[in-house]
Amino acid sequence: MRVLLVGAGGVGTAVTRIAARRPFFEVMVVADHDPARAESAVAALGEAGSRFRAERVDARDEAAVVALLERHSCDVLLNATDPRFVMPLFRAARTAGADYVDMAMSLSRPHAERPYEECGVRLGDEQFAHAEEWEKASALALVGMGVEPGLSDVFARHAADELFDTIEEIGVRDGANLTVDGYDFAPSFSIWTTIEECLNPPVVYEADRGWFTTEPFSEPEVFDFPEGIGPVECVNVEHEEVLLVPRWVPARRVTFKYGLGREFIETLRTLHLLGLDRTDPVTVPGPAGPVAVSPRDVVAACLPDPATLGERMHGKTCAGTWVRGVKDGAPREVYLYHVVDNQWSMKEYGCQAVVWQTAVNPVVALELLATGVWSGAGVLGPEAFPARPFLDLLTAYGSPWGLREQ
Amino acid sequence: MRVLLVGAGGVGTAVTRIAARRPFFEVMVVADHDPARAESAVAALGEAGSRFRAERVDARDEAAVVALLERHSCDVLLNATDPRFVMPLFRAARTAGADYVDMAMSLSRPHAERPYEECGVRLGDEQFAHAEEWEKASALALVGMGVEPGLSDVFARHAADELFDTIEEIGVRDGANLTVDGYDFAPSFSIWTTIEECLNPPVVYEADRGWFTTEPFSEPEVFDFPEGIGPVECVNVEHEEVLLVPRWVPARRVTFKYGLGREFIETLRTLHLLGLDRTDPVTVPGPAGPVAVSPRDVVAACLPDPATLGERMHGKTCAGTWVRGVKDGAPREVYLYHVVDNQWSMKEYGCQAVVWQTAVNPVVALELLATGVWSGAGVLGPEAFPARPFLDLLTAYGSPWGLREQ
Questions:
Q1: Which residue of B has its CA nearest to A275?
Q2: Which of A87, A143, B65, B186 is most buried by a 10 A CB count?
Q3: pLDDT value of residue B90
Q4: Do B94 and B184 belong to one domain?
Q5: Which structural domain range is residue B214 located in?
Q6: Quick one: A349 and A212 in the same domain?
Q7: Gene3D superfamilies this protein is in (chains A, B) (predicted)?
Q8: pTM of the predicted model, to two decimals?
Q9: Has residue A21 been placed in a domain?
């Protein structure tokens, strides 16, 4: 297998460090708009980096991405950029005849009149519109294959395959107790993506109603996370699992709730109130005359790069899927989860917990595809594939998952 | 009198509309970095605009300001820009031999080690450092001559002259009940200046201690504002009056509290937490490569221009000075205040209440200087001049002030 990894930020860099220990691929080309980031990711691998090449590419430039895929004869494009670049990279892979894996799906747009009741363009709609084309070409786009979405979807499939006869509700629940020394406010994941997830209308699925939306931060609940993280306030957030799971796993209700905590919710509300979550440019004075910038990019530029915070970070992050249903005639409720301790991921990989946890899952998936354990064609979510081999290989990577009967 | 008005934003435009009704000056040159703003301020005066000229000038370009003052033989420069431009305009006036009037003073810098206990560079320090030079030249820099500082300082002087034998405390108190239709968040005054005032360490004066600072938003109190505005939560804020009043009016304690309200305080705290109050540039991606912008300028660009909100605004704004002391052996407590109803200022002048209230005071002051009722040399605050003529002329402008015995 020959892989083009696009994006050498926090997650992309972690992908290289995890993949470098696995023999399943021949070459991984690491491309970033900033060639120094790509080079530094490869250089950091030292002797283990012989299968890696650094390149420069603008993820918006489809023709350049196609040329890069062809020049290196890549079989698959792994997209580790932010969700703005999903569509050009997805199209470039198809044009070049490569398979495609991402960790976030094409962006949603709220319903014009009833944004907090009905879906407009849903997450992934733009990609699923091309499903038939990929299927006919016997090509695979494996979408939403990070940790959430990704491992959370694998958990949902595992629950349906082995743990339940019928499922009432699948609720992805994400929480952490991470703190960062020396910063009053330092998100542990891309603020661009976090704003996108949290301020878009949250989407909920119900079998008799289909997909619908609510007000941001709806249905708050306190969820008790395992391994010492403890109770965290979670609220509905727009997330890919709600769009993916019902396509392959029958359930009466699917939700995603994010353990943001009160302070973070208020911070996001304020950014929205001031219009600082906007992505369309505003004009501001610059030293050499007026310049156009996206306010959300400015928010990101004012905060520390989450990928650089690992040394100052303490605590654990938990991704998981809570499932309620019936097994052998009796009610059952489980939480399937994966916890990463920042101290462990820093020591083992030099990567902070949140980006490491995101990055390990697409590498596991690539290995399953390379070895033929997973195969398929079309635009498919992680729950379209058998879950057991994935969970076993994840454990073999040294990062086991857990099951808590509720 | 020939006046150069620098700044044709909300306050500058209101200055032209107020001044246009008064005969005391021959010419007012209206200059802005954006020539369209200057032209539109003058054009809006219609037939009443014959004494006004529009010009373009960069307030940072001292030589250009000097040239403009000389070309139009101006006697006085009225600065209606934001406080960043105080020093170049103050210096340019001195160089050209013109008098100078502003509504905010040169900026402070917090104490490097003990920012919330001791003053670093104080508001106005840079201007007062040149006091002797102005005095020797028999030239006048009348500083802090808006509404607050400005009218609030005149009230303090009036209290000392006519209402008290000894003064215990002078506390400027500012509050409003303004709302803006169609906006969840729309400050009624320059957000750049508001952030500067509110996030800098507040300064307090005590006779036995001198000037010192506190944590932002300290000493909250609920102050009951007159004319139906009612109770508003006020907190300590850095403001010029605390630096000006003690130089000319004896008082044991001088404070400034701003009726920000809970939501606004939390919004400012969040901006600070995220570093979005910063003025030093950050680098962000732009359509044509990375650009450097000041985060605070981006915050301002995301909000509506307060000067344009008059039509959608409702309510009143109150500026005033609360004084506690002794008169004829008995304790006395008064609140001297000036209220502007937005409906009135829009109907009479097409200006919203907050900018109109700021703008009327320097025009009154210019008229007192033009007619010789006020005169002086050096760097002087409004409380250095007799208060009664100012208050009488303000009333003659159709905008009376009030006194409430507490």
A1: B302
A2: A143
A3: 98
A4: no
A5: 151-357+387-405
A6: yes
A7: Dihydrodipicolinate Reductase, domain 2, NAD(P)-binding Rossmann-like Domain
A8: 0.75
A9: yes
Please check whether residues B83 and B197 belong to one and the same domain: no
pLDDT tens digits along A179-236 = 999 888 888 888 888 898 888 999 999 999 999 999 999 999 999 999 999 999 999 9
A36 at interface of B, judged by CB pairs closer than 8 A: no
Asked if B286 is an interface residue toward chain A (Cβ–Cβ < 8 A), one would say: yes
What is the structure's pLDDT at B343? 96
Encode chain B in three state secondary structure.
CEEEEECCCHHHHHHHHHHCCCCCCCEEEEEECCHHHHHHHHHCCHHHHCCEEEEECCCCCHHHHHHHHHHCCCCEEEECCCHHHHHHHHHHHHHHCCEEEECCCCCCECCCCCCCCCCCECCCHHHHCCHHHHHHCCCEEECCCEECCEHHHHHHHHHHHHHCCEEEEEEEEEEECCEECCCCCCCCCCHHHHHHHHHCCCEEEECCCEEEECCCCCCCEEEEECCCCEEEEEEECCCHHHHHHHHHCCCCEEEEEECCCHHHHHHHHHHHHCCCCCCCCEEECCCCCCEEECHHHHHHHHCCCHHHCHHHEECEEEEEEEEEEEECCEEEEEEEEEEEEHHHHHHHHCCCHHHHHHHHHHHHHHHHHHCCCCCCCEEECHHHCCHHHHHHHHHHCCCCCEEEEC
Regarding whether A243 and A339 lie in a shared domain, the answer is yes
- The answer, yes or no, to whether residue B287 has pLDDT greater than 80, is no
Q: Is A210 on the interface with B (CB under 8 A)?
A: no
| Residues B202 and B278 placed together within one structural domain of the fold | yes
Task: Let me know if residue B227 belongs to a domain.
Answer: yes
Q: Tell whether A8 is covered by a domain.
A: yes
CATH number for the domain spanning A193: value is 3.30.360.10
- B271 and A CB contact within 8 Å: yes
A206 and A61, same domain (yes or no): no
Contacts of A285 in chain B (CB under 8 A): 293-294, 297
| CB spacing of A291 vs B293 below 8 angstroms | yes
Q: Of A102, A136, A160, which one is at a domain's C-terminal end? A: A102
Question: CA of A183 to nearest chain B CA: how many angstroms apart?
Answer: 9
> Does residue A155 have a pLDDT over 80?
yes
User: Do B175 and B299 sit in the same domain of this protein?
Assistant: yes
Closest CA of chain A from B101, distance in Å: 26
Lowest-confidence segment of A102-106, B183-187, B341-345 by average pLDDT: B183-187
Lowest mean pLDDT among A267-271, B123-127, B253-257, B373-377: A267-271
A1: confidence class by pLDDT, cuts 50, 70, 90: very high
Residues A320 and A172 in one domain: yes
Residue A393 domain flag: no
| Tens of pLDDT, residues B3-32 | 999 999 999 999 999 999 999 999 999 999
Where is the domain boundary, A102, A130, A164?
A102
How many domains is chain B partitioned into structurally? 2
